[in-house]
## 1
Amino acid sequence: MGWMPPSLRVTGSPRKALSNRQAGQGGAIVRNMTVISGRPARRVDRVAAFGAVVALAGCLLVPFAEFRANRIVSGAPEPLSSAGTAGWLLLALAVAAFGLSVAFRPAWRGRGILILGAGLVALMPWALGFAAVSLLIGAGSPARVSIGSGAWLVMLGGAIIWFAGARGLGRSRLKPVLAVAVIGLWVSSAVFGGVPELSLAREYAVQSTRFWGLVREHLMLSGLGLAFGTLIGVPLGALASRNNLVRSATLSVVGVIQTVPSLALLGLLVFPLAAVGLPGIGTLPATIALTLYALLPIVRNTYVGLAGVDEGALDAGRGMGMSKAQLLLRVEAPLALPLVLEGVRAAAVLVIGIAAVTAFVGAGGLGILVFQGWGQQADDLTLLGALPMVALALFADLAIRGVASVAVSPGIRQEEVAR
Amino acid sequence: MIRLDNVVKRYGDTTAVDGVSFEVPTGEVCVLIGPSGCGKTTTLRMINRLIEPSGGTIEVDGRDIMSARPEELRRHIGYVIQSVGLFPHLTVADNIATVPRLLGWKDERIKPRIGELLELVGLDPDEYAGKYPRQLSGGEAQRIGVARALAADPPVLLMDEPFGAVDPLNRGHLQGEFARIQRELKKTVIFVTHDVDEAIRLADRIALMRDGRLQQYDTPEALLDHPANKFVHDFMGADRALKRLGRVLVGDAMRTDIEVARILDAGDIDRDACGDARFVYLVDGNGLLRGWVDCHDLDEGRSIDDAVTEIDWREASVAPDISLKDALSTMIGLGFRSIPVTESGTLVGSITLSSIEATMTSSDSHITQLSGETLSSEEPS
Amino acid sequence: MSAPAHMSSRGWWPTALVILGGFAFAWLIMQQDLWASVLGQLFPGARSPVYPVPLVDLTLQHLALVGISSGLTILVGIPLGIWVTRASGRDFRDIVAAGVDFGQTFPPIAVLAIMMPILGFGLRPAVVALFLYGLFPVVSNTVAGLEAVPEALKDAARGMGMKRLQILGRVELPLAARIIMAGVRTSVIVNIGTATVAAAVGAGGLGDPIIGGIQVQNLAYVLEGALVAALLAILADMTLARAEELVTPRGLG
Ligand SMILES: Nc1ncnc2c1ncn2[C@@H]1O[C@H](COP(=O)(O)OP(=O)(O)OP(=O)(O)O)[C@@H](O)[C@H]1O
Ligand SMILES: [Mg+2]
């Protein structure tokens, strides 16, 4: 009784607090404080400069790529120069970004920094492709070239510079144009450049048929968990908002489940399932576990969303002669929707991650590639499982935010809710 | 018509409303007033069954409210609350359309109705129909709240401190607006407020409550002049003569037969307007108030510039739909013995201290009567 | 939202309960023989009913992994969150907030998996991955907590003549403590879970018997590891929930 599950932090409320600050009212406060402290606009764009330092470190201090005689052995470090002209171009962009960020008047540098940051990101697959092609000349066919930590750092630095430029620029048509250009360069490097020669691409080529099957499995498992979680969680959250007993019981139980490590829960599920003669291994326990994990964010956000509906709106609805069902459908549901969707979003991201663990109990999905990669110490295989998993999570995140931006009434978008 | 007969509401041991009876005739405004916690909201909400009475009967237009389904009942009673309670996810138009939709009206019927109601509450339909509540000011939101309550043309309107959250200036405006709408629509209204001035201004009858009991139910004049007990007397306040002025609108008390001087094209003014009066108001070709002319100065041959005092109608005139009390207050503030009355700048009349005096003496009998009164009457037990 | 009344209970008994729970847990994992006999009866077919590594060792490995990474997380995350809300670090606030937001959509296993090629096999990548992943909720809640402190309060503190550090220490941090602590709690609980999976990269801990048990099809191992891992997580959560209440200044919550 003295404790509660980590439930009462509403999923996404800190996020909301952060993004509120960026847009609208909060921004005014920040500006105010700048004025009060009398600090002039900085001459140095410190964020862009930091990004440039990261990119420079990636260029100069750590290996850009790794050469391996075959798939399993550990690699030999290769410097930026292995990418030839493209490598030097990256270095030049990073130096230029650093120069712009420290030396020029703010009015001039916005666009420049934006372009340089996007350029670093856009060129990366081309540079890696060049490195792969040049390093593989004369090497045997099992030889592989993989992405080094330097390349990751350069990309991170580029992204930071890009972000800094975009922030400094405000609304500009250049932003979407650059985004399209970057995507174009990435795609073209996969088609015309040396990207297919990179070890990750080679691994994909070997595994491609199996890979897409696993992606499908991963999506199916997460989709099932999310669907059941939503179907159970939303009504449960609604009940919790109506009844205190249901609320404390549900939130505690769901909260405890959430704390149990996923691997342990999957292990524990084997026994009750076996006791009733059901398979303790495979899709069934995986789906059950994913459903259970999806519950917490959905139940909690549904509850908070419904409990937070403005008393005045409820009173007005009742006073106008709405029945309970009409009140729920026309007033409570639309007002709670942003938080409910935020719960579903959090659950989707969570479930896509946990679905990877279900590979341990024979449920399939991209986790299989990760664990096989670990088992064989084959890094490429591990990454082939992990990176698409990240992509799926990001995609689900974006997709559900997209749904929210369409489904939530403009009258209540950004602002309101979870006080 | 709304009739309450010995209505009681108990919460456990506390009795929030204790045997309240009164009747509001069709088309009248009854203002429920009393100190905080006296049971005004509870009384109001029992009428549309948002709270179920513990005893007594309530009839709306001759029908016992317990004989209908509460939802059905509520759809035919307009309801406005202090916090407005606009649905933030719906546009102004959809907010207003809520009850008509619940009643199953066709869209062809709802659409014109929305425009009609927005015009009625003084908002431009083209500008406001598509807005969301968060884009409205407090006063605008209140207007929409009233429009929404009126949407299905309910014969009865319940309003719980509808202007409570609005600043004093807007409040005066909204009161004027409400009075105008009520003159037009003649609804049967129960209006809850804390504010004695608001009650006096808007009420046909006032029901004054204390600790769940009705203290007096009568016209504002009667409450002012013949308080049933000391509590009523104290609650209505000491400045009763002034408060009575709150019942009279400037438009009803102003003189309209006033002389005005016009500005002529040549930069001159039409001097003939100066008759017997020392001062006349000065208007331009469009009838807009520009200032006044000291005829004395003109007679003595001073220049027009010297004789004319220019004023801004926004600051130095009053509107016909405010109360005489507010007009008097403005006059005292400006140090004027007379003040022009304008409608958006157009001169329509004037109010003078003597015309206010005349209004007060017309009920002078009450005043003398009051001043000699000993106020030791007990509360009814 | 308004917290249920019992959440702010300040009596000594919830703390006592948590400490008692800790002792009970410690006792439980030291009863190697008890586990052997109970599991032996439950799984008569198993070749050996308890995992060869003693439970105490597995638990300590687990705790060490989580302790080191979460300790680093707190040491780095809270100062970082504070810094980006100060004048000196405000330039970096947006990028840190965006990065933390972005990071929280990453599956924890993916972070572990991405660390492997860079840092190799074993404890090191596990610690780094847990540390990095744990940073996200801590930084995000630190920033949110500090920014939720009403400007008026900071103004009042300035008006009373407090210096910046005093405002931070006496006004901002106490008011933000609960939210920051909630971030730490989320971070630690996720880390305990991810550390279980890290057994697969050779980091040891309570994931070992679960993964090992599945591989050699010995359900007794699985039950042993899963049960203790679950209990450990729940106990840690209770402890941190208690800490969350204790750091909340009396006037709040
Ligand atoms: N649900 C309830 N349970 C118990 N007591 C209540 C309840 N609702 C109202 N009361 C009590 O009934 C009395 C009358 O309340 P009511 O809300 O009608 O007052 P009011 O005149 O509208 O006050 P105010 O001017 O502050 O709005 C109060 O003493 C209040 O405490
Ligand atoms: Mg009230």
Note: Chain A has 15 helices and three strands.
## 2
Amino acid sequence: MSAAAGRRLAPGPLEYGRRAWMRLTLLATFVFLYAPIATLIAFSFNDSRRNIVWRGFTFKYYEKAWNNDSLIEAFVNSLTIAFVSTLASTVLGTLAAVALWRFRFPFKGPHEAAMALPIVIPEICMGVAMLAFFARIGWPTGLPWPLNLGAITIAHISFSFPFVAVVVRARLANFNRELDEAARDLGASEWQAFRDVLVPYMLPGLVAGALLAFTLSLDDFVITFFTSGPDTVTFPVKVYSMVRFSVTPEVNAASTVLIAITLLITGIALWLQGRSGARQLPGKG
Amino acid sequence: MKEVRGASTEPPIVEIRGVTKRFGAGRPAVDSVDLEIPRGELFALLGPSGCGKTTLLRMLAGFETPTAGEIRIDGADVAGVPPNRRPVNMVFQSYAVFPHMSVFDNVAYGLKVTGAPVAERRERVREALGLVRLDGLEARKPDQLSGGQRQRVALARALVKRPRVLLLDEPLSALDAKLREAMRLELVNLRIAVGITFVFVTHDQDEALSMADRIAVMEHGRVRQVADPAALYEYPSCRFVADFIGKVNLFEASASAGRDREGRLVLEVPGLGALPVPHPEPVQQGEIGLAVRPEKLRLGESRPDAEIVFEATVEDFAYYGSETRLFLVTEGGVRLSATVPNTDRGPVRIERGARRFVSWAPADTLVLTE
Ligand SMILES: Nc1ncnc2c1ncn2[C@@H]1O[C@H](COP(=O)(O)OP(=O)(O)OP(=O)(O)O)[C@@H](O)[C@H]1O
Ligand SMILES: [Mg+2]
């Protein structure tokens, strides 16, 4: 015993954290994942036009980005689209999930599979399909803001609502139907039982789904690229066009702001979730 | 036997006539059930797993629609009436306490959703929580309650609606043995306090016998017998009920020997010989079930002066504290089980291989024609 106490014990089977190779792999993963982002953020404060060597700290490019009207316009477009499409796809996705969970109807299996299709279809195909679709039906162009964002918003809703549906459906799978029946038994109408019992139960799934929809919409490039026109540029499309000339700290600054917004919204959502879903297991699939 | 409750003038609170429920093809889950439950009764639906107890209860609550037949609650046909408009409330097997609501909100939910004024709500919730002895826990969330407390919330939540019939699906099955025992008495007392008809489902015969005024025993969706606990135990109508309720020594006999001089039926049991039983009703020829409860058997070291007596060897025994169960085998090779109350303190004075005389009174023999 005294001999063993002096030496360090060999790591146990589950003590991965104490194995050197494990630590190394972990470190490498973090570097690969976060080094580019860290660099992006750091260089947004770099006092240099060429963005290659560190020349000193500055807020100059944030100011510059703020004063770049077309960039701000793209930014506002992106946020508007993201908000509308998040709202719509959360409602649609939730309804789809509830319908699939609650009812029995013919061809339910194929329905469910077809609904999840936009998740697996390559984005480029979705983009081309959307472009062809809007051209075919003669979707009006040149509408005043924000109506001109309609096509992009619809495209975003169509690819993000399946994600919401899948997340909410996974949560519903663990729902105790007796809760719903108890509410009905106590005098609630179907709608009241839905509102008072099912929605609170789904809430963590709703929040997670909405978050997913929001981030998917905010950073989508491919599908947006195909559905946007010259007067409906979104942030990712704008950044792409700016980068084609040169990677300036201005792009870095704008991207950093986007990261900050995403983190902020995620934080708020998690906080809301923690407050309302009090100690319920999140039913994420 | 108990007196008939609720006098003949009052119609039964629940009438079930020819109710059948099919889920797809195959044997129906509930098969032409007829039941009448008088007002104020504590009625038990008892049967093995899968016999259709829950399905029957859910048809009363309105969660399942009968395939055929009629259900009347307080005189009114409830066909097509949704669960939220029926004068019954249910305590679910999982309790189904709303996890995101406090105890108060859970109990108040049924009043809130039907638009009862806030002051009335508060008063009635307080009263209901008092009934189930949960005062002071109003602000707790369900995950801060014990299983027994959660069940009380479910009870209070249903009682606060003042239903005409309270339906309980295996109300005690999720509790530990000690608490279950205590809750039995509490449920019976609660029923007396509120005067509401209780219909409860159980697969535990002890629970049904100790709590219910009357019991319906179900098998494969059919009601086999409806009787009060003592009648059910002492006068089962068929082999299934005799075997399901309590323990029993069951033999197959034939009535070929006819009747003896006193007019008693003489049944021939392989290995036991001819046994006289008082059974005035005529019986069909062929296989007849003959049963005797283990506690009706008497054991002695010397041959007693009895009509039915066998010499047997103790094969095994099990000590249960209040009683000892003996497993015996007669000279004819028939196995019998007997229970002996441990009335005296001290070590069990029995050993394997001991010989005993087993006897029972002809009147204690059950004749089972079904
Ligand atoms: N929704 C349903 N769909 C199909 N079959 C069902 C459904 N509900 C019940 N059954 C079947 O009906 C039969 C009776 O079920 P029920 O739940 O009433 O049994 P139970 O007596 O309550 O059993 P337990 O003691 O196990 O709860 C079972 O064979 C069951 O499989
Ligand atoms: Mg059941």
Note: Confidence is low (pLDDT under 50) at residues 1-6, 278-285 of chain A.
## 3
Amino acid sequence: MSVDILMPALSPTMEQGKLTKWLKKEGDSVRAGDVLAEIETDKATMEVEAVDEGTLAKIIVPEGTENVAVNSPIGVIIAEGESVNNVSVNAAALKAQMPGMPTAEAPPSLSTTSVVAPPEPVATDVATVKMTVREALRDAMAEEMRRDPSVFVMGEEVAEYQGAYKITQGLLEEFGEKRVVDTPITEHAFAGIGIGAAMAGLKPIVEFMTFNFAMQAIDQIINSAAKTHYMSGGQMECPIVFRGPNGAAARVAAQHSQDYAAWYSHVPGLKVVVPYSAADAKGLLKSAIRDPNPVIFLENEILYGHSFEVPEGDDVLVPIGVARIARPGKDVTLVSFGIGMTYTLQAADALAGEGIEAEVIDLRTIRPLDIETVLASVRKTGRCVTVEEGWPQSGVGSEISARLMERAFDYLDAPVLRITGRDVPMPYAANLEKLALPNVAEVVAAAKAVCYR
Amino acid sequence: MAATSGSQGNGSAAPEAASLTPISLPNAGLTQFTLDEELAAYREMLLIRRFEEKAGQMYGMGLIGGFCHLYIGQEAVIVGMTRAIKPGDQTITGYRDHAHMLACGIPPKAVMAELTGRAHGISKGKGGSMHMFSREHRFYGGHGIVGAQVPLGTGLAFANRYNGNGNISFTYFGDGAANQGQVYESFNMAELWKLPVVYVIENNRYAMGTSVKRASAMTDFSKRGLSFNIPGEQVDGMDVRAVAAAATQAAQWCRDGNGPIILEMLTYRYRGHSMSDPAKYRTKEEVQKMRTESDPIEQVRERLLNTHQASEASLKDIDAEVRALIGEAADFATHDSEPDPAELYTDVWK
Ligand SMILES: Cc1ncc(C[n+]2csc(CCOP(=O)(O)OP(=O)(O)O)c2C)c(N)n1
Ligand SMILES: [Mg+2]
């Protein structure tokens, strides 16, 4: 009997990886637990262990192959004593390994969140380079650290491990352990230490492994960072950036899947930035580091691996507090930010196919909120749908809706609709998780509803 | 079992000096297991190991998603500790929780089906690997936030003292968690109010990619209660007999009304922190050395064959029985249906 060796999934968000190296050759005998091959994702290198014992009869995916889909067969093991020649590799198996081919067997968890980032329109006169959000964030920090010796990074696994999500890759090597500081798992205290250091004139970038863990530190962020400038009558400054992945990743369930955009946006004294594209991630993080105020910088794990065109040069900043028209249109305004943009842009495409021209606004900053850009758009379209992964009550959509009601009431031809995550803690089960998150179809449906179509 | 009493509250003329004398319990030594006890420990540890190996495989196949933290290498800790558990005692831990559940007697099927996110998982598929609970088995989670279980476990002990039920809360956490501030806030109150809680620090030498000495100014975790006057003991967490002995002594200390106690278990995790950890922060040789020289299961197996003259065949029978149980659990977890979509909205409120 032959058994396929499948490309394993190694992380909640892994969809494909590179098969770097085979450590066994065809014909070698293997025991359960033997390391068969090494694979590499954008985050890490890992070993593939044999699950069964027998003989490695066939290597289907040769070493060096990129983009091997999770769960596609990479080799075949037969029971000891069977003939190697009897093994036929089925066509489906070969097809499954082709780059970019989705596999039918891919677990639902992986496909629910795998929205492909559509290309970004970029001004043609600027030279750009394609990079992932992960690289853009790293470059932003590295450039600012080169520019200003008072900037340093601190957090769990940021130095030697190169970041739990590899955002600080290479920083330790370039800047040394004085400026790239590994902390114990003590969020409340290291957030406070960062704030104290900022009060003393340094410019800390505090990485939370994820923002879920910043809840350990939220008292320091709000009571110490956000309010000090005000309480001191403007004497004290707190130039600090708190950054890290925010929101749902994939299947990490209730305690690890929350969108904090609305939470922090409630607090005067904080700035809250939520980039979507790599260009914004870079330009906004640079602005955040230079900003004299505490900035909450909310990233997204799923977006880390998405690629976008980013302007070249190390002095390209994106201002905090300015929204971006991601796609112009006249019929309905769709407002989103961060990963919500993936649903929104796809919905706009789908709507275009039905003759509805949606104007898509990427807020980029939640506080201060660029309501003027939204107002201008809604005064034109008369309709608005907001899209976010966070919970509905007191969400970002609620805030926009209230402001539109106050300032654009006479322009509205339909009630503002909010598409949000469901009003429940994030469930673990694949099917429930999918139901808990917004989807493209409901954005399309809401946009049509406000257009009375 | 004779726990020496503490030096606190003895009305000495020099209370300040007295309170600076650390309480120390005698080294608990080793519990001498009978053949049946060795066999039981062997079977329970093997069940955990095979369960975890299967979970690792199923993760690779995409049947389990999210984070999945395996307990392989640490089996002697939970199995030894549960030698001291009495009906009504509570257990609480972090996200590396599959083994604690199995050791509390929760059926492997219910745990595995939770890992696959299915309807008959112990949390109906809503919690996943890191968030599992069982009221029936007095297992209070399964917590994803590092250190959060420590005050919760202390609260379970508070309830025990309040109700005067003579029960203990066994509160497990890692060497990394041991640096969280809420741990020390809990220690203080636990000693202040003499709460019956055994704090079990599972020192597996690493918190994700950070070794103990890179994260802790003082690496002897058994002494972390000193400034609160909580006694502590360092235990060979790879030897189930040493764990059992320490557990028994600690439980007695708590049941006698002496308040909290700390057990630092020196143990080791063989696998990466979670499935996506390339484990580049330690050498293969280091892992291999622990595996070959200190494996908790091999130690018992050796004793069974050499000291107790158990037959290879009797151990093979246990292996086969455990394999069948895990196979059945995996099969159940693979074929059980997904939760009903309506479950999305249930259980938010009671
Ligand atoms: C408050 C908080 N911070 C960070 C994390 C991410 N995290 C999960 S496990 C872990 C390491 C914990 O190590 P340790 O306490 O030694 O337990 P072990 O994993 O070794 O069992 C970290 C940093 C988290 N879940 N919660
Ligand atoms: Mg540890």
Note: The two ends of chain A are 57 Å apart (CA to CA).
